[in-house]
Amino acid sequence: MAVAELNPCFAPKSLLHPSSSLSPRPCFPTHLRQPNAFGRISYTSYPSISCSIATSKVKALTVERQKEEVNNEEDCYGIFCLTYDLKAEEETKTWKKLINVAVSGAAGTISNHLLFKLASGEVFGPDQPIALKLLGSERSFQALEGVAMELEDSLFPLLREVSIGIDPYDVFQRVEWAVLIGAKPRGPGMERADLLDINGKIFAQQGKALNVVASPNVKVIVVGNPCNTNALICLKNAPSIPAKNFHALTRLDENRAKCQLALKAGVFYDKVSNMTIWGNHSTTQVPDFLNARIDGFPVKDVIKDHKWLQEEFTEKVQKRGGALIQKWGRSSAASTAVSIVDAIRSLTTPTPEGDWFSSAVYTNGNPYGIAEDIVFSMPCRSKGNGDYELVKDVIIDDYLRQRIIKSEAELLAEKRCVAHLIGEGSSVCELPGDTTLPGEK
Prior knowledge:
The protein is of the alpha/beta class. The chain has 2 domains: 2-175, Rossmann fold; 251-333 and 343-421, Alpha-Beta Complex (L-2-Hydroxyisocaproate Dehydrogenase, Chain A, domain 2), CATH 3.90.110. The protein is built from 12 helices and 17 strands. The chain has helices at 63-71, 109-120, 141-153, 168-171, 192-213, 227-236, 251-265, 299-302, 306-318, 320-328, 333-348, 398-417, and strands at residues 2-5, 34-35, 41-42, 99-104, 130-135, 159-165, 177-180, 219-222, 246-248, 272-273, 276-278, 286-288, 293-294, 297-298, 357-362, 375-381, 389-390. Strands 1-6-5-4-7-8-9 form a 7-stranded parallel beta sheet, with helices on both faces. A 3-stranded antiparallel beta sheet has the order 10-13-14. Helix 2 packs parallel to helix 11 and helix 5 packs parallel to helix 6. Mean pLDDT is 82; it is low at 5-38 and 41-78.
């Protein structure tokens, strides 16, 4: 495993062993990043600047650069400032090419559960080596170092690199997956409109960084709330990345809905399939019992209490987070991390025949008549290649349509609130009320 701090590129001499066989790797300082005609950064290898952990291998450094490194030298923990490359004969032949995964808000409680799942191979598989690139803030940087230390001590065989930093232009370099968790929580007296603006600016900046330095086909999972509109802001600020690659997380809502249906039907939750969450990750979300199935049968054929389905079911799904906080005083960080794992695995493994999953994605070209140019949760299928297609064979009756329209109207209103962040002029913010989910205030 390699753990590196962003920046500097060179480890302090006190940490280097003269007999080390670790090999040098190129480093690309901020002032050497040059955008190409498409706004993306192309990297050029400069022989006079290289990252190496053996001082005998550092060649052709200018005096000016050497002074700069001394002046900017930061404290490193253990192997944080080292780089590691397996020799060709040491590589496990069955392992795949290293995958780069960025996580923002990496010192937070959700990440504290997620990162170890990523590093263990639970998410991308037992033969997929991974590099974790962790984004924090100036205030959380010391905690971020602690996270990296725990990852270091866990000795995950698949975890080959860990980088930490506070600049998304550094952290997001060449990432193929980005999980954007970090967002400002809603404070006392803060209106939803204020939260949209504050967090929207964060995701606008991160979208711009992804656009310039990430892999051209990076897949982005937005978790920080309000996640649907944050995902829209992010994709609008990353025009060189396919809009289809951006997702807002509604998988926890899907998982909660499956659990409630299973409890009501008296079956284990693996019997529940074809569960869709339509719309926004808010109290206007629509858990769809019309198309869901229990042990292969329509839910309405298994659960005869249709009044419960129409009235109590949706409320139970929406209020689950708040009920959890009342029980033990904490938000649902662990189950959120599990749902992120589920969301990624739904894109990297083929969807079982006849089933689907929920994800909030870009609506352009959707077959349901939902307004275009928003991020809306809809039923998806995947062949396991990271891509997806929208499911066409769903039933939408008047009951379901009315609720979909309500969530659509809310997302269109949120979009008008952030017009200044997506290049659509001045914002006009007239939200229909406080629709933040209980437990996410």
